Amino acid sequence: MVVVENVGKRFGSLEVLKNVSFRVEKGEVLTLLGPNGAGKSTLMRILTGILLPSTGVVWIDGIRMDSEPEQAKKRLGYLPEQTPFYPELAVEEYLRFVAAAKGVDPAIQKEKVQEVIQRCDLEEYRNRRMGTLSKGTLRRVGIAQAIVNDPSVLVLDEPTSGLDPSQALSFRELILALRPQTAIVLSTHLMIDASQLGTRVLFIHKGQILLEDTVEGLKKRFAERDVYQLRIRLKGEGETEDSILKGLSGIEGVQEVKAFPSVDPCVWDLSVCTLSGWNPTSAFLPLLRDRNWDLLELHQKTMSLEEVFAQITMGPEEARTKEPKGGL
Amino acid sequence: MSAQFFRALYWKELRILASSCILYAFFTLFFLFTGWFYYQGILSYSAWSMQAPAGTVVNVQQHLFVPLYSNMMFFLVLLLPILTMRLLAEERRQGTYSLLVTYPGSPMALLGAKYLSALTVFLVGLLGTGIYPFLTSLWGGVEWPLLFTTYLGIALCGSAILSMGLFFSTVAEHYLVAALLTETTSLFFWLIGWIANYLPDRLTQLLFGVSFYYRLKPFLLGMVDTDDTVYFLNMICVFLFLGYYLIYREQRA
Question: What is the pTM of this model?
Answer without folding.
Answer: 0.81
